[in-house]
Amino acid sequence: MSDNTTEKLKGVAKETVGKVTGSEDTKREGEQQQKKAQKDDEAARLAQEAEAKKQEAAGHEGQQRNHQD
To answer: What pLDDT is recorded for position 23?
Structure first.
């Protein structure tokens, strides 16, 4: 399980505790924790995509050099 999944689950738990106890602060904290984990997941996904495109571009560049030689 990734750290972000763990953080999401903790956020869900906090949100639920906040709802059950009537604590708006705890509920809001849980919601914010979930949103942060989702954003971190998205950032990691985008970084992976960027790295893949970078490697793909480097491969195409090498192929173009071979064709020019």
So the answer is: 98
Closest to 2 in 3D by CA, of 45, 53, 31: 45
Q: Roughly what angle, to the nearest 10 degrees, separates helices 3-21 and 24-68? A: 160
pTM score above 0.85? no
Asked if 36 and 44 count as a contact pair (C-beta separation under 8 A), the reply is no
Q: What share of the chain is helix, strand, coil (3-state, %, to 5)?
A: 95, 0, 5
Q: DSSP label at 22?
A: T
Q: CA 63, CA 20: separation in Å to the nearest integer?
A: 61
- CA dist., res. 3 & res. 40, Å (int): 10
